[in-house]
Amino acid sequence: MLREIQIAIDKLDEKRQALITAVQSVSEDQLTYKLGPDKWSLLQELQHVIWAERGMRLSEEELRDNPVREHLRPGELVDVVKNILENDVPVDVPDPSLEPDGNTSLPELLKLWEQERQLLWALLETVNSENVDKVMFSHPAAGPLTPLQTLELALAHLDNHQRRINNRLADRK
Question: Averaged over 42-59, what is the pLDDT?
């Protein structure tokens, strides 16, 4: 695996583990509590992160055999989207299928996350010096992305939701 890909994966794994540790320390009532009708519960925050990672992997499957893929160029909007995430700018979910319903238990979500991570990592194992700069994924707002751009965006996304969860957990103390 390419070094820069491995470094990004290691960062995501480290942050993933910290998030898992944090949410496992709260009760079921705290996981499902919503501050208001238009606010997400902690469980929904986690569900959204997992579904977004699954969406990245599924976008590669959609592009894999599509002849258009060879003509796509990585977009410049990824930096805009990362900036929005890094600065906690409130935005709507860019894809309605990623809107969490909160109907999955924490153990089920953690199992799904592990499965998705394994599938995504296996896919990233195929990245080499010949295809590292080619479009592999697509994001509904950022557009076509290289593997490294995808991982950087996933990291910014995870950090954004980690901050939201940490703020909620700090408020309960």
Answer: 94
